[in-house]
Amino acid sequence: MDKTQTDLNWSGPAISVIGLGDGLSTGLSAASIGKLEQAEFIVGSSHQVEKAKRASAGLTTLTAEIIDYPSPFSGLEQWLVDHRGRKIVLLASGDPLFFGIGGWLSKRLPAHAIEYSPNVSSVQAAFSRIGLPWQHAVTVSLHGRPLESLRCYLKQGALLACLTDVNSSPCAIAKELSTSGYDQSTLWVCEDLGGESEAITQYQVRDLIQGNDPLSVHPLHVTLIACRGGVNRLPDFPGIPDKLFATGKTSGQGLITKREVRLAVLSWLAPANGEVFWDIGAGCGSVAIEWCRWAPLGQAFAIECHPERIEFLEQNRNSFGVVHNLQVLADRAPECLGNLPDPDSVFIGGSGGSLTAILQDSWARLNPGGKIVIAVVTETSKSELLQAVNRLSAKTEDSGRPRIETIQLSIAKGDDLAGHLILRPQLPVLVMKLEKT
Ligand SMILES: C[S@@+](CC[C@H](N)C(=O)[O-])C[C@H]1O[C@@H](n2cnc3c(N)ncnc32)[C@H](O)[C@@H]1O
User: Fold this and answer.
1) Looking at residue 244, what DSSP letter applies?
2) Which part of the chain is the Tetrapyrrole methylase domain (predicted)?
3) Is 281 near ligand 1, meaning CB less than 6 Å away?
């Protein structure tokens, strides 16, 4: 359950949330019609109310007071408080718990206070029109979100349903697919489903990116995508090649947590949806970006103080499409940590001589069960780390001491020397994990 739930102490009959079908059909069951007839208040847009009234001749004799959804919408909370215990119907479209009002309600009211009557959602209707099973499809809301956030969901063979706004037109989506190397994808634009001007049109990416004429589409539409990319598509498996990260003159070189080390670090961090992650000394952001791609519903903060690297960090954040769950902080740790939500995991890849303070502050803020992973290369930072950990352990009671695991990774990479394979050793990296039990 969401941490922000505020129990409105609902008493009396449960609020009835009734989803209406798409287009002209209302798809209301006899039970839903009964609820509408018995309601004291029906809340809905004029369009929704008209549609509900059409559901049955009986509804022309509705006795309920009809109320428009408040603007701003947040006013609904106070309205519900003021009408606690009354017989209320809230009108919605499709399935209210699928990208609908149910999300908002579930954060404010206990489950027993609401009774849902779902209808066919627009996404379900769209898949039924193209005749493809959709149990494994992923629905992506691009409403008010930068189009780049789509990149996070592009995987070879994936089936996506996009809920769009004016910035995510079918042509804009096709351009995005082409930029990300998913240029062989198929799109279906499903317009005005169930309405008089319903149209389902299939396109290939190239159909939509050729020419200057933007496609004119009905404002109510869903875009479905069957993702298919070529060799240069964005990777959809952990362990992003270093060279795909902008780091300066030569991509993937310089200050970056290299792929092999990054994979070990990430397996310890174990990214999970719903968690908060801090990447301290984020550099070009390789760790934070992979973390975000593995946990699209997590929240990551990348802290970096070097101006040029912040530029690369932002560039990489966009090119990998983790724009919705990665926040870049151009700041210094530990000073900036006070403004962040408590983390479930922390990676310290750079500390600029402040490791003791960063470690202490991060440990104090770490949620129970959380972990801090630190990677160091130089002998100076290794000894700084050991001292910082000793100090931390000395300050904590036996029962609260971190559970520590340490590895040293010595990677040697194949190279060519006068036609012979050689293994060129890289600097060993010491990686330590501190777990709060
Ligand atoms: C080795 S790099 C990190 C590499 C990074 N994990 C990656 O993959 O790009 C260390 C970074 O830490 C940053 N840094 C050092 N001390 C810092 C501090 N106190 N606050 C924020 N950033 C810091 C440096 O500017 C540098 O970019």
Assistant:
1) G
2) 15-207
3) yes
What contacts 377, CB < 8 A, 6 or more positions away?
Answer: 427, 428, 429, 430
**Once rounded to an integer, what is the mean pLDDT over residues 262-279?**
98
Burial classification of residue 75, based on how many CB atoms lie within 10 Å of its CB (0-12 exposed, 13-18 middle, 19 or more buried)? exposed
Q: Indicate if ligand 1 lies below 6 Å from the C-beta of 361.
A: no
What CATH architecture applies to the domain 15-120? Answer: 3-Layer(aba) Sandwich (3.40)
Q: How far apart are CA 410 and CA 79, in angstroms?
A: 63
Q: Map tokens 């990054």 to a residue.
A: 262
C-alpha separations of 70 from 77, 80, 106, 214, 404 in Å: 10, 11, 18, 35, 53
Whether pLDDT at 65 is above 70? yes
Show Cβ contacts of residue 39 under 8 Å, excluding neighbours closer than 6 positions: 16, 62, 64, 87, 88, 89
pLDDT at 3: 41
Residue 8 has pLDDT above 70, yes or no: no
Confirm or reject: Cβ of 298 under 6 Å from ligand 1.
Answer: no
Could you tell me which residues come within 8 angstroms of residue 258 by beta carbon, excluding any fewer than 6 positions away? 242, 411, 426
- 145, 153 in Cβ contact below 8 A? no
Q: How far apart are CA 337 and CA 365, in angstroms?
A: 9
Q: Which residue has the tokens 């079908």?
A: 21
Residue 305 near ligand 1, beta carbon < 6 Å: yes
pLDDT for residue 397 is more than 90: no
Q: Report which residue type is found at 269.
A: L
Residue 353 token pair: 């001589």
Ligand 1 atom with least separation from CA of 309: 27
- Cβ of 274 below 6 Å from ligand 1: no
Q: Which atom of ligand 1 is nearest to the CA of 306?
A: 25
Q: Is the pLDDT of residue 344 over 90?
A: yes
> For the residues 266-285, what does the mean pLDDT come to?
97
220-240 tens-digit pLDDT: 999 999 999 998 899 988 999
Least Cα distance to 239 among 254, 207, 261, 218 occurs for 261
Instruction: Locate 184 and state its tokens.
Output: 């062989």
**Is residue 56's pLDDT more than 70?**
no
CATH class of segment(s) 242-435: alpha beta
